[in-house]
Amino acid sequence: MDILPIFDKNAAFIWACYIVGFATLFALGLYVLIKSRRAKAALERIERLNSQTNRTGE
Amino acid sequence: MGMLSYFANPARFMRLSNWLAPVFYTASAVLIVYGVWQGLWAVPKDEVQGGDIMRVMFIHVPGAYISMAAYGAMAVSAFIWYVWRHELADVAAKSIAPLGAGWTIICLSTGSIWGKPTFNTWWQWGDARMMSVLFLLFLYLGYMALRAAMDTRQKAARASAILAMVGILNLPLIKFSVDIFSSTLHQGASVITMEGPKMSAVYLWPLGLSALGHTFLFGAMVMTLMRAEIRTRRAGALRAQHLAGS
User: Fold this and answer.
1) pLDDT digit string (tens) for B109-152?
2) Which of A1, A21, A24 is opposite residue B41, by nearest beta carbon?
3) Residue B51 in 3-state DSSP?
4) Quick check: helix, strand or coil at residue B46?
5) Closest partner residue to A13 among B98, B117, B231, by Cβ?
6) What SS3 string covers A2-50?
7) Closest to B114 (Cβ–Cβ): which among A17, A24, A47?
8) Are B124 and B185 within 8 A, CB to CB?
């Protein structure tokens, strides 16, 4: 089996489809990862702030 | 209704998705890699479908299927929020929109590239299938824009829920556009038909497993975005509490 498959005259269209498809999936994955990390960091920050305020209040 | 309320608990969802999302990510990676291997290396080319170009279906068909299924899930979530006001349903609808748009872009772009060698055109403005899928992308973008334009979360949820529910009428139009309208370049249905699949098993199984892989990836990403949205809302509530206390 070849490392890369050999296609007929439409090879460029086939590769273009797979590259565009997986680039979009990669972009979606990156978006999800950034959203997730930001939300987690924001919640941790406000929880830390609240616990500090509560300790000062006591 | 009882079961719906059971699953609409954010704390329960966070516990469930904490282990379910990684399982989904793993399953999706295995199945999508298998689908790519089948599509590019293993399955024989089909001269009836234009030779090697039919290998594009292993990315195009899952894109098309997820783009429609995602919209259905978003509309159902919007309906649940609209009727029962379960916040988790609104969180789900909001999380599905950008992902549904992403898979619709995969469907449209790979379909356009496939169309050039097959129909000798990148795009046909009079084609019912192409135009109804393009309209689906606009529905997703409109949904996100509408949410972003509202000044309160309740207004955003209500307005976007109505749009999501009305827009579901586009789904049967997409599905049956190739049967109803004669002016379409797109081929007729070959997987979901009244007579059963018309496709050979050598293509059908890898295609089904590839679509399943995309389903797992979509599900995992929805869960991750929902977890992020729940945390964002929790942070907002705590911030308000903090400001009220200071």
Assistant:
1) 999 999 999 999 999 998 999 999 999 999 999 999 999 999 99
2) A1
3) strand
4) strand
5) B117
6) CCCCCCCCCHHHHHHHHHHHHHHHHHHHHHHHHHHHHHHHHHHHHHHHH
7) A17
8) yes
Domain boundaries, chain B: 32-188+204-240
Q: Nearest CA to CA, how far is B148 from chain A (Å)? A: 16
| B chain contacts of residue A14, beta-carbon cutoff 8 Å | 40, 52-53, 55-56
Residue B84 scores a pLDDT above 90: yes
Q: Would you call B207 exposed, middle or buried from its count of C-beta atoms within 10 A (0-12, 13-18, 19+)?
A: buried
ipTM (interface predicted TM): 0.92
Please write the tens of the pLDDT for every residue from B13-40: 999 999 999 999 999 999 999 999 999 9
Question: Which residues of chain B are within 8 Å of residue A1 when distances are taken between CB atoms?
Answer: 41
Top pLDDT among B178 and B210 is at B210
Q: What is the DSSP letter of B194?
A: T
